[in-house]
Amino acid sequence: RYLLVFDFDETIINENSDDSIVRAAPGQALPEHIRQTFREGFYNEYMQRVLAYMGDQGVKVADFKAVYENIPLSPGMPDLFQFLSKNHELFEIILISDANMFGIECTLRAAGFYSLFRKIFSNPSSFDKRGYLTLGPYHSHKCLDCPANMCKRKILTEYLAERAQEEVEFERVFYVGDGANDFCPSVTLTSADVAFPRKGYPMHRMTQEMEKKQPGVFQATVVPWESATEVTRYLQELLKK
């Protein structure tokens, strides 16, 4: 009946997993020469260099795993997932994230919520012959607002089209996120849908700015959250109706 879309970094988990894994690096920090290679919009390529450096420093599968498995979930997130587990026949749940598949799987399996997700869309990652964690781009796209490796709007639109072909239509779409790259897909939501931006994060600010500049263009109902308990409460009320 309902499609629920989650972001990962600073949404499901309470930090950015790409920053978190630096805890596995020597001295838990990156050298300045690596940090200076970051370019806006090319974060995926930057992370490829970070991971190559960490591989050179002897960081192994188990080291990465240990960090990912210990990343804290955001406030209220375990409660929301418990609620969704109890009502799993009403919600189809997917995850769209600019992190990486290996990290997301480690975190969700450790937290016990991996099986909730019908599909996870993220950058491909694997360990090569040397034991280095390698990262690739998810896809290429023409969106001017998103990083070169991922447009979440494109992923969500294609997913809805694919499900429609399989004769699965959703009454409503719910989108839970925090970042600028979550704002892009949320603009395509309809007046039946709900966007849950994390309070005070880029997605929230961008929805507010759009409402000021172009009233009515952003169609979805906006429900900001500080704790995912607020998302749970909203969904509980909806199910009572």
TrEMBL record:
Its EC number is 3.1.3.75. It catalyses: phosphoethanolamine + H2O = ethanolamine + phosphate; phosphocholine + H2O = choline + phosphate. It is an enzyme of class 3 (hydrolase). Keywords: Hydrolase, Magnesium, Metal-binding, Mineral balance. It is found in: Extracellular vesicle. Gene3D superfamilies: HAD superfamily/HAD-like. It comes from the Eukaryota. GO terms for molecular function: metal ion binding; phosphatase activity. Transmembrane segments: none annotated. InterPro entries: HAD-like_sf, HAD_hydro_PyrdxlP_Pase-like, HAD_sf, Pase_PHOSPHO-typ. One of its GO terms (cellular component) is extracellular vesicle. This is Phosphoethanolamine/phosphocholine phosphatase. It comes from Buceros rhinoceros silvestris. The lineage of its organism: Eukaryota, Metazoa, Chordata, Craniata, Vertebrata.
